[in-house]
Amino acid sequence: MDKALYVAMTGARSTLQAQGTVSHNLANADTAGFKAALANTRAYRVEGPGHASRIDALHVDQGFDSRVGAQRVTGNPLDVSLRPDRWLSVQSPDGGEAYTRAGNLSLTPNGQLVTSGGHPLLDEQGQPIALPPHQALDIGHDGTVSIIPLGEGPQTMAVVGRIRVVDATPDRLTRGLDGLMRNTTPEQPLAQAAGDVMTTGTLEGSNVDAAGALVQMIQLQRQFEMQVKLIQRGDDNAQAANSLLRLGG
C-alpha cells in the first residue's frame, strides 16, 4: 500500500509539472517565433539502502518543438522570418549571447535594433547594432542592414552592418528561464549562417497547437484527479487496516 501511495503521489506531482508546461505553451500561442516546450514522464527507480522498491514518476524536460510556425505577411520592413535552423543572435540580460526566432524587431529612440523583448541584436562581430539617423531602412535576405541617411537620396543607400544569424540544430540549444535559447556547448561557438537566412516583411508565428494544448490540459486534469482519488483510497485502506489490527489486539 505504501508503494502504491508513493507512485500515485509522484505521478500527481509530475502531472502538475506537465500542466505548468502546457499552460506556458498556451500563454505563448500568439508570441512570434515561440517554440512549444515538450515534456514527458518516465519511471525512475529510487536508489538507496536496502531493496530498491520505490519507483518515482519523474517529470522530464524534452526540449522544444523545432517546427517552423505559420508565416504571416506584414509588409513591415522590421519584421523578419528566419529559415529553418536559423536563429537571431541577441545580447542576453547577463551580457552574454543568446538566440531567438522572434523576428518582430523595432528601433529604440537611440537607434538600437532590438527584439520585441528589448534584447539588442548583435552583428557579425558580436556587438549590438545601432543605426545612425536615416529616412529608409532595408534588411536583406542575408541579414545585411542598409539605410538611406537622413536628407539624402536613394543613391546614397549604404550597408551599415549585418545581423548575426547562426545555424543551430535543436540539439545544440537549450531554453533558459528568460525564454532565450543558449548554446549547449559554449566551447564550440555557433557559426554564422551563410546565404539567404531570412525573409523580410514576414513574421513567423508561434508553433503551439492551441486546440491540441487545450485537449492535453483536459487530459492532464483528469489524470491528476484519478491520482488524487488513488491517494485518498490508499489512505482509507490504510485506516481500515489499522482498525482491524487494533481490534485484533
Automatic annotation (TrEMBL):
Subcellular location: Bacterial flagellum basal body
Residue stretches making up the Flagellar hook protein FlgE/F/G-like D1 domain: 87-146
SUPFAM superfamilies, per the entry: Flagellar hook protein flgE
One of the record's GO cellular component terms: bacterial-type flagellum basal body, rod
Record keyword Transport present: no
Domain Flagellar basal body rod protein N-terminal: 5-35
Pfam family, one: Flg_bb_rod
Boundaries of every Flagellar basal-body/hook protein C-terminal domain copy: 200-244
Protein biosynthesis listed as a keyword: no
Keywords attached to this entry: Bacterial flagellum, Cell projection, Cilium, Flagellum
Gene Ontology biological process terms from the UniProt entry: bacterial-type flagellum-dependent swarming motility
Main location group: other
Subunit text: The basal body constitutes a major portion of the flagellar organelle and consists of five rings (E,L,P,S, and M) mounted on a central rod. The rod consists of about 26 subunits of FlgG in the distal portion, and FlgB, FlgC and FlgF are thought to build up the proximal portion of the rod with about 6 subunits each.
Family of the protein in this entry: Belongs to the flagella basal body rod proteins family.
PANTHER family on file: FLAGELLAR BASAL-BODY ROD PROTEIN FLGF, FLAGELLAR PROTEIN
Protein name: Flagellar basal-body rod protein FlgF
Organism, scientific name: Luteimonas yindakuii
